[in-house]
Write a structure and sequence with these properties.
By secondary structure, the protein is mostly helical. The protein folds into two domains: 1-81, Hypothetical protein, domain 2 (Endonuclease III, domain 1); 88-172, Helix-hairpin-Helix base-excision DNA repair enzymes (C-terminal) (Endonuclease Iii, domain 2, Orthogonal Bundle). It contains seven helices and no strands. It has helices at 25-40, 53-61, 68-78, 88-96, 106-113, 122-135, 158-164. Helix 2 packs across helix 3 (68-78). The chain starts with 24 loop residues before the first helix and ends in a 17-residue tail after the last helix.
Length: 181
């Protein structure tokens, strides 16, 4: 149970992101808050800080409407854990850059990226990929002509978008590329 989601494979129970049961998000959030208060005595995540990452991940995923991305975001942003959340944008970029080329879903990319993201780099890599996706590797109208990773990219229409891209200098973008990732 003490292993981090960064290093284990297939140990997590199925997350409940697809089990919505037609409940509005507000109802699911209220239910989660009620359970947290029952388990920990207050509406705080402090009771989770000393628990192993995998145990917290499984607990969060046990809540109706909480999937791998949400659980990983809570672990990384709220609890400071070295977990790499994958949303649709990160999934798209990881596929285009051959980091997770055969993954069909963000959950598959999440599992594959566990072994690829260097230890203690999940937060910075996540934030920089988000910035990279907002500035250059956008889902629509990507700026392929400005992409420093153009040669590594698998995006089939990159040549078309390269011609459409404006000329901008590297200083126009506030992200950094990580070595050995």
């Amino acid at each position: 149970m003490g292993e981090s989601p960064q290093g284990d494979h297939g140990k997590h129970r199925s997350c409940n992101s697809n089990r919505r049961h037609g409940k509005p998000k507000s109802v699911r959030i209220k239910n989660i808050l009620r359970v947290i208060k029952q388990k920990f005595g207050s509406l705080t995540l402090s009771g989770l800080r000393k628990k192993p990452t995998e145990e917290v991940f499984d607990l969060l995923c046990s809540f109706d409407g909480v999937g791998k991305k949400t659980a990983a975001c809570v672990l990384m942003f709220s609890l400071g854990r070295d977990v790499f959340p994958v949303d649709t944008h990160i999934h798209r970029i990881c596929g285009r850059l051959r980091l997770a080329p055969n993954c069909k879903t963000p959950d598959e990319t999440f599992e594959q990226m566990k072994v690829l993201v260097p230890k203690n780099r999940a937060y910075s890599f996540h934030i920089n990929l988000i910035r990279f996706g907002r500035k250059i590797c956008r889902s629509t109208n990507p700026l392929c002509g400005n992409c420093p990773l153009y040669d590594q990219c698998l995006f089939p229409e990159k040549r078309d978008y390269r011609m459409k891209s404006s000329s901008a200098s590297a200083s126009d973008y506030d992200f950094m590329l990580l070595d050995k990732v």
